[in-house]
Design brief:
mainly alpha, two-stranded antiparallel sheet, 2 strands, about 65% helix, rod-shaped
Length: about 100
C-alpha cells in the first residue's frame, strides 16, 4: 500500500485509510475523487481521438481509440469503453474511405 499525504495536516497516511489518524480528515473520499477524475480525463481523451480519426490519420487513431476503449473497460468505465471501441472502428473506416475517395477523385 502506498502512503499519501493528508491535505489537511500533511502527515503520511495509508491510501486505504478511511480517515487521517492525526486529524480525522476523510482520506477515502479524497482518494476516490482523484481516481474518478483520472478516469474521466481518459474517457474524454478517448472520445476526442475517436472523432479525430474521421479527419486525421484514420487507421492510426482508430487503433488508438480501440486501445483507449480497452483501457477504459479495464478501469470500470465499461459503457464508455465499448462505445469508444465501436465508434473507433466506424469513424476510422469512414475516415479511411473518405481519404481513399479523395485521392481517386
Amino acid at each position: 500500500m502506498a502512503l499519501i499525504y493528508c491535505p489537511d495536516c500533511g502527515k503520511e497516511v495509508s491510501e486505504s485509510a478511511n480517515t487521517c489518524p492525526n486529524c480525522a480528515y476523510p482520506i477515502n473520499r479524497l482518494y476516490g475523487n482523484l481516481i474518478s477524475k483520472q478516469n474521466n480525463q481518459l474517457v474524454i481523451a478517448g472520445y476526442i481521438i475517436v472523432f479525430m480519426s474521421l479527419f486525421i490519420f484514420p487507421v492510426l487513431l482508430m487503433i488508438s481509440g480501440i486501445v483507449i476503449g480497452i483501457i477504459n473497460i479495464s478501469k470500470n468505465a465499461v459503457g464508455h469503453g465499448i462505445v469508444q471501441i465501436i465508434l473507433s472502428v466506424v469513424c476510422g473506416l469512414v475516415g479511411a474511405f473518405i481519404g481513399i475517395l479523395s485521392t481517386l477523385l
